[in-house]
Design brief:
4 copies of one chain form a homotetramer.
Chain A lengths: L1 E5 L3 H12 L3 E5 L7 H5 L3 E2 L3 H5 L4 E4 L4 H9 L13 E4 L5 H14 L2 E4 L2 E2 L2 H5 L3 E7 L1 H14 E8 L2 H32 L3 H10 L5 H12 L9 H17 L5 H15 L13 H5 L3
Parallel strand pairs in A: 1-2, 1-4, 2-3, 4-5, 5-6, 8-9
Antiparallel strand pairs in A: 6-8, 7-8
Chain lengths: 292, 292, 292, 292
């Protein structure tokens, strides 16, 4: 299948490579073309623009940092919007606002093009091993066409809704839940340390019992060991996702006290100059407040 | 081995039964003796007092609702304290305050008796199947003597420290973490519902991905389905444990913003008259605030 | 002096009337012209557009509901920007975002026009009696020119800075502080009621002692008596100002936990359908949570 | 009138002196007798015990640091309880828990003695000038007897209820409200500083407008100038009162989010080693978090 892939960051490159390995012909685009070089050397075509990448592609993936980037490659000059084949499907994997997701869905629907929101859970290492988890939402016909591609790049695809915006909500909820794990383990660690309880023993017990999930096993040690550099997911990006979930909730008048606590943690963290750290660094603020 | 078991609630009865099934001779005590009848019918000796139960026992277990109950059976008239054999070990499985755990440890140490704090994670059904998780702490010699008993009643024993009080801290931390899962899933559910996202699809995706731990699989459906009765763990008991973790943290000047949010949820829940519900009912307050 | 006044809401009309009473010639503009009729009947000229109002005016006041309205009358087609005399000063009294205030300041500076931010404290009744408090900021030359006008419409003008944006910050801070009074009195009232303490006696004691300021005397009785309709300052506008102060703080990485609590109160209030109530209605949520 | 005064701290000594200046005969007691010396030199009788002080007194005042101290002088060996004349009234001015106040009321009622709770607002300087504000509660007959004394030592006595415990609630509410002023001004100051707005100009504007009450005029400058030493009211005492209001609210299932934020501020402050500072030092934590 002809596949376009826009966004050659750590996540996008890893995913695109898996699609190519499954036999698909890729055209790739990145704003700074050097980052696309490894894929091009592996056989992908380097596109000159999002529109150029999208031409003749049956599926066009976007995996970008934020709303602005997605808007630019979609609606901008030489954006993918004007170049989509009649039968093509735009697959948006980025974590974007619910509002933008709704706008994308409406635009493609009006233009008679397919659109699937397919945000993922997983870090770059998981992407490289095709171990991502995909939350997909879109109309059935579009979903059917891209499902084989989503299955190639992930360990599991869950179709969560027909409305793409709901996949966007779900992704924001997932990142919100991760942030609550970070904060709660951070508070637990602060109390453990000040009590003289070994935090590694604490984690061993918890993740050996009812907390034996990757979210605790991944973030627990980062917080307990204070290993926040280099970042797996940079703190300002984590803050962005917290902002997006609060925006989505505010639009519906939903108060989320835990999300509000996390919001403040990000502000304090940024005031400390921690932009270069992993977002799990907010898990160290409870300890800082307690002077441990 | 001669084993005494004090506290014949749902948890205690199930655990005692497993000890008896492993071939140990049990003497059991409960303030209201009727609740001990099933064990007695299964072959246990009914003791007239905690002291009576403790006499000639190599290990004396206590599994009771709160500090007051543990104090009564330990330090009260006919309490176990005066009746412990020289080689006996008191095994405290109750969720109690750190301060009481320290007092018990000091008392037994001064009296030359063994003491192991062994709080557990798991609900009555898990106790019945010997699937509990035990966080044990105590001096090595006492620990060695009771380890075979702990292994019989659980699926895993983690020795987390030498100081018993630290097992108490760990248990409070574990319950704190469960409460944060309840609150965070409650907020997620409120946002999902108001967004039109199906909360069951949300849970399916999350627990199929990096949240695939019993804590999410157990509490998620309770909250999403609003199944808070009958209670598995009554709301006032959950509030008590929240109070205990905040007390432990306050004694060490540790601020725990998430625990503070949970504290308020319990107060609101009790004002609504929800004492008869499961503690996970606090997970419905985000939805109530959002009028969904 | 020729004065233009844009925005004929309750506040704007009252202020404009005082300027006219002091002998100034007013041209007035409002998007829906009917609301300007009382002023026109009192002798003001009805302008067809913001630009029309601004022509030949020495001072152009804007007093509007939000950023969007101020942007429209300033930068929009027939906006005041193109019609300002060389010596004219734009006096912005609206509560607007710091970002918009900075943009207005920069635009006027680049165009060689005067600009003074002069937000006010006080409700319509105070405006009618020229009892407002003005926090003014702007370059000295512009300030000098409009000071006589500001003095006419208020009981006190405080020049708080040279940079207009700082008057905007101060206004947002003032409204934030009022919101904290509302919330704190609401919590006090909930506790008093449930304790059997008469809340009127409570207020009498407090406002007779160290809390004897209008902010407590005005909002205390509203909350204690539950008099939230008709609104003096509508709840959605109060929420808007809370949003603005949080935005200003977020831009500078300042965590404001009290503002965050107030933010959630507004969300809950709006979910209850309280858009038609006074913003002090958030002071009733503590009581609602406590079921009093 | 024969008056006993127990508690010769800064507040108690100043109040006792005013009673003596009004012509009353005082017997005074303090655990460490040296602190009573100035009063004795001015003509008071030094009592050997609370009981000794109370003998033949028509009114017995207690003004002590906390519940423990009040319990000791009341119920302890040689406590005032056994020595009260039939017609005597115990006037409790200390800030104590609602529970202790209820216990005192019940005890005196059962013994047929008068009891008035009369906590005060004001610092030692105000006490010295008889400028305190008294919130009094008690049965009418007892109130009548001590009213002339209360009027001598204050600028205003407000009878707020018949039930003494409600004066206790009111005092805790008053201190809670002061703590919210401290926190809110602290947040405002952090935002002002980071915005480049002069915090003194901010205070001048606010306290010249609707915030012109002593609570803002007293605490605002302390926070803006960072003048936390020597303490007027020590931080651990402020924390104690926050604990008492939260306890009173918890007993009635009242959630107080602002009080909860203040609770955390005190914990962080104590972790920083600020026990020797004024309680208004918690108003500096917003700035610390924002790194200003």
């Amino acid at each position: 299948m002809n596949v376009a892939f826009i966004g050659m960051g750590a996540m996008g490159s890893a995913i695109a490579r898996n699609l190519m390995a499954a036999g698909h012909r890729l055209s790739v685009y990145n704003r700074t073309p050097e980052r696309a070089r490894p894929l091009v050397e592996a056989g992908a075509r380097l596109a000159a623009s999002p529109a150029d990448a999208a031409r003749e592609a049956a599926a066009v993936f976007t995996m970008l940092a934020d709303d602005q980037a997605v808007e630019a490659v979609t609606f901008g000059a030489d954006g993918l919007l004007g170049a989509l084949d009649e039968a093509a499907v735009h697959v948006s994997m980025s974590t974007i606002s619910v509002a933008l997701c709704e706008r994308l869905a409406a635009t493609h629907r009006d233009a008679g093009r397919g659109f699937v929101a397919a945000p993922v859970l997983g870090r770059p290492a998981a992407a490289a091993q095709a171990k991502l988890f995909v939350a997909a939402a879109g109309e059935a016909s579009a979903m059917t066409r891209v499902m084989p591609l989503l299955e190639v790049l992930s360990q599991r695809v869950t179709v969560v809704a027909e409305s793409p915006a709901q996949a966007s909500v779900l992704k924001l909820i997932a990142n919100f839940l991760i942030s609550t794990v970070i904060e709660s383990v951070g508070e637990a660690h602060a109390l453990a340390r000040k009590s003289g309880l070994d935090s590694h023993a604490m984690l061993e017990f918890l993740t050996g019992a009812i907390f034996n999930a990757p979210v605790y096993k991944t973030y627990g040690p980062l917080i307990v060991d204070g290993k926040f550099e280099p970042p797996g997911f940079a703190l300002p990006l984590g803050q962005k996702d917290n902002r997006l979930v609060l925006q989505a909730a505010e639009a519906l008048n939903v108060a989320m006290p835990f999300a509000a606590v996390v919001r403040e943690r990000f502000l304090v963290a940024r005031s400390q100059g921690w932009d270069g750290r992993d977002w799990s660094a907010i898990g160290s603020l409870a300890g800082r407040d307690a002077a441990v």
